C-alpha cells in the first residue's frame, strides 16, 4: 500500500481534528494519483506531434493563458489524460527526445504541460518551439516536415530558479462571495491535491476545489488578508505546504501574488528500479 505522510508541524494543535479530516481526503487522493503516476521517473516510449499555432497551447486546458509563453521560453506541451491527471499534471515538466539520431540530439529538451492532448496517436503535442528544440543544429525544418516522431520521455523536476510559488487572482473572482486563483511556478516534481484558504492569523480554514487545470476556487471567502495551505504529493509521498501571507486585504483581480514559499520536492515512487535510457 502506498505511504502518505503529512507535515503536521505547520498546523496548529487545536485544529488537529480538522487536519485529520483533510488528511483522509488527501490520503484517498494520493492513492488514486500514485496509481496513475507510478514510475514517472522511468523512460517511456511514444510519439509526439506539434501545434502549428503557438496560441493553441497558450489557451490550453490548464488555464495559464498568455502566461504559458513565459514558461521555459515557450517549450510547452499538451499531454494525454494519464499525464494531465484532471489538471493535477498542469505545470509538470518532462524531458523528451526524438529517437531519430540523424535528426535529433541525444539529450532532447524539457517541456512543461500546459494543455490536455486528446489524441490517441501521441502522448504529447508540443509547441513548434519545443518540437524543434529536439533537433540537431540546422535540422529544425527537417524535423518539422516529419510532423510526428517517435520519442522517449520521462518526468523531471521543474526548476524556476529563485521564483516562488505564486497565485494569480482570476477575473471571475468577486468579493466577498467568490475567489478563484491560478497556481503558478510550481517547482519540483509534485502535484497539488488539496488547497485551503483562511484569513491571516486565523485557523478557520475553508477548503477550495479545483475548478479546472491549475485554477482553484471557493465560494467561502474569508475577510481580510489571506493565507493558503496546500497538500502536494507525487508517487507515494506528500506533505502540507503553508503559505502564511499571500493575498492582501485589498487583493485585486488579474494580479499575481508571491506566496513566499518554494516547492522543490522530488517524487518518491514505490516502484522497482528502471532503465533511465542513458539520461
From TrEMBL:
Q: Where is the Expansin-like EG45 domain?
A: 59-163
Which Gene Ontology terms of cellular component type are present? extracellular region; plant-type cell wall; plasmodesma
Q: For the Expansin-like CBD domain, which residue ranges apply?
A: 177-259
The membrane-spanning stretches of this chain are none
SMART domains xref list: DPBB_1 (SM00837)
Which Gene3D superfamilies does the entry link to?
Expansin, cellulose-binding-like domain (2.60.40.760), RlpA-like domain (2.40.40.10)
The name under which this protein is listed is Expansin-like A2
> Which species does this protein come from?
Rhodamnia argentea
